[in-house]
Each structure stands twice: as structure tokens, then as C-alpha cells.
Amino acid sequence: FLTPEKFNDLTVFQNEFADISKEEQVKRLHEMLGPHMLRRLKADVLKNMPSKSEFIVRVELSPMQKKYYKYILTRNFEALNPRGGGQQVSLLNIMMDLKKCCNHPYLFPLASQEAPTTINGSYEIGALTRAAGKLVLLSRMLRKLHETNHRVLIFSQMTKMLDILEDYLEGEGYKYERIDGSITGNQRQEAIDRFNAPGAQQFVFLLSTRAGGLGINLATADTVIIYDSDWNPHNDIQAFSRAHRIGQANKVMIYRFVTRNSVEERVTQVAKRKMMLTHLVVRPGMGGKQTNFTKQELDDILRFGTEELFKEEEV
């Protein structure tokens, strides 16, 4: 059935298909894989499923974020210098710091310690919001969505970012639930049941992308916000499928936040290209759970948008 004699040399297969850039390669792969695969899309099986629309929303860095972003780049100049030959592990660490900066500067201890607080020790809500372009946008969106009786799922890869979002929701008085990797078993199901209960007052459900990506039905929500995209785009697809599934009565709106002229924008472009190849060749998710970047891709991602950022100082 699997005809192992057709797939007996991994090196030959990789040499032919590692870099798919020609239509002939796609056709050849279809011929090889077609007898062994049956791809059924959700739209083919669930004819009455409401539609979904996804939007990439580009956000500007706040002044505080620009300061930290530039600091991270200049501090790591040697690793980022083409002649310096920065190691891939080092470049990944730099990229993680830049992604933190795009999410919220309070993810860095220094910014968090210097942040204005209230008498009870919580972050001052105005300063917390203004510190990050994404949170400024989220604040405006949630206000409108709350007024129009929508319910929202917010996904982030970072549990500390969920902590900041939790502080924001409490400061604004929004009722919410939360699931991340530390919440398991009965607590997890109880949070889902509370959110899905008829007449529930919870407006927002905070979820970590990996922990909230599988085995959860939150079809009572009709709006999904991907606060920061996962390295692997298939994990984001699993995440917003928590709302777009059996039981959903409304059209699902998906908003993916991407910081303009930053590592996020370039990662999104690279991921989109890889997704297109996946859809051309095999069903989504066949590859492993990790999206690995080459050193050349990492160099390109880290430098994306830096020229525009530093040009601002010269104007």
C-alpha cells in the first residue's frame, strides 16, 4: 500500500524537492503522494459552517518600543554584522527579544520596574496601554466589540504577555477567562464551560497559542485576535479553529496583529510563503510542529525594517 520502494532514498527525495520553485516539481509530488493521501477540507464536510475572514492588521511601534528595539539591535551589532558570522542560536535569541519588544516593552524587567503603578501596585492603565502599539489598537477594538456584543478569543505565544493582557482587562473592568500551559484538567474545562454557558458575562478568553490550540470548543466567540503569530503558521490555524468549528452560528472574524517594519512582518512573509508551498503540495500540518529558519532567513528577518527605524533619527 505504501510502496516503500518509491521512497527508499531520503537524499534523492530531498535533492529533488527540498526547494520547490517549479510547477513540474509540484506535479511530480502530486503524482507520488496522490495514491497515499486523501485531503478533506472543513468546507467540504461541513457545508453549513459560517464563513471566516482573516485580516492582517499592521501596527506601529510606540516611542518606548522603538527605543528598546534600537537598543536590542545596537547591543547585538557584532552578531548581526554579516562579517561577524553570528551563530544561529544567538540570532534566534535576538529575534525572541525583538518579538518581545513588538508585543510590549513591559516584558523586559527594566521597563516593568520603571512602569507607573497605582496605589495597589497594579500598572497604571493609561501608561500600560500607550507603551505598546498593539495594546493601543486592542484597546480600541475591544471597546467597539464590547459595545456591539461580540465575544473575543485572544491568543499569544507568551504567558507573560497574557499576564499583561490580564492586567489590562482587569483595569478596564472586562470579564474574562484564561487558559495556558499551567492550567490543566478540571480547571481548564471549568473555564471553557463558564465561557460557553448561556448568558455568560465573560467577554474575552485569553489563551496561549500552543495550550489553546487543540481539544477546545469555544464556538460561542465570533472574533479571534492573534496578538502575536506563532513561528509555525499551522499552530495559529489550530488556534483560531477553536471558534470556527461545529456549533458556530456567526461569521468568524480573525485579526492577526503584525508590527510594521519589524521581525514580525518578515516572519509573517516567510511563513506565508511556506504555507503556500504546503497547500500546493500536501495537506496542512503534515510537517512537524517546528518551523525552522535557515541562518540566511534569520539574517534577513532580523535586518528587516531596521533601515527605516534608524532613518527616523536622521530626519
UniProtKB/TrEMBL annotation:
SMART domains: HELICc (SM00490). GO terms for cellular component: euchromatin; nucleus. InterPro entries: Helicase_C-like, P-loop_NTPase, SNF2-like_sf, SNF2/RAD54-like_C, SNF2_N. It is found in: Nucleus. SUPFAM superfamilies: P-loop containing nucleoside triphosphate hydrolases. One of its GO terms (molecular function) is histone binding. Keywords: ATP-binding, DNA-binding, Helicase, Hydrolase, Nucleotide-binding, Nucleus, Repeat. It holds the Pfam family SNF2-rel_dom. This is Chromodomain-helicase-DNA-binding protein Mi-2. It comes from Sipha flava.
